[in-house]
Amino acid sequence: MARQGFDLMDRKRNILIREMMGLIGRASEVQRQIDAVFSEAYTALQSAHISLGFCDQIAAAVPVDDSVNVKYRSVMGVEIPVVTKDETAPRVEYGLAETNSLLDDAYFKFLRAKQLTHTLAGLENTIYRLANAVIKTQKRANALQNIIIPSQAENIKYIEETLEEKDREDFVRLKVIKAGMERRGDADNEG
Known about the structure:
Elements: H1 2-52, H2 55-59, E1 68-75, E2 78-85, H3 101-190
Antiparallel strand pairs: 1-2
């Protein structure tokens, strides 16, 4: 059973590593996209700020976004977060009379950066949880392979040797009894 447990732990570890490696590549790509979008967004914000001169007051008009939802799915017993966002069409929340298209451009680029950040947060949290699960699984597999299985093998060997010794003793005892019975039988036949 310990060997079967080790095989299962080894398979679980391999599946978790495979899942994690696939997500690492995706997270790297999303991180590159975020870097590019943030660079563009800050450049656009800088242009809007130069053009308008008061972007911080306009930013206060944008409401707090609480449309992010986190649900969980299980991969080999590991709870993985699935980050979703209620999709609504982006709306400009500030007055258009005193702003220009440079501010709109910055606003929509930051919206894109926010969407990518939601995606990256889910991916990184998933990778972190999978990495922890891989470490725990590896520790358990190592304990089975290096401690439990050798200990059980040693116990099995001891029990087998003890049973063999008992069988030899029983065999010798039976031989002695048989020899004694034969001597008695011979003595009874002579007498």
